[in-house]
User: Fold Zinc finger protein CONSTANS-LIKE 9 from Cardamine amara subsp. amara.
Amino acid sequence: MGYMCDFCGEQRSMVYCRSDAACLCLSCDRSVHSANALSKRHSRTLVCERCNAQPATVRCVEERVSLCQNCDWSGHNNNNNNNNSSSSSSHRIIIRGKL
Ligand SMILES: [Zn+2]
Ligand SMILES: [Zn+2]
Ligand SMILES: [Zn+2]
Assistant:
């Protein structure tokens, strides 16, 4: 797993496929997963937009980014130290569906 697509290595990875254990860019995701009926059933999640290394588990509506647990935690917990107690936590939704 890394910043670039595991398949073509040229474009930024956007989607994480659990079945392939691979991060894919959008065009590779489309071509890999339209190949046959079995691969269409792979469940995919977005890749964390901050570290680009982990599958995203949370979507921050306010910042419009998808984040993994680590980045969500480090990003949003800092806010709690400010007087911002209505903090960002309410702006996140848990990603658990398929794309
Ligand atoms: Zn690719
Ligand atoms: Zn797949
Ligand atoms: Zn992350």
Remarks:
- The chain has one domain: 15-94.
- The domain at 15-94 is CATH 4.10.830 (30s Ribosomal Protein S14; Chain N).
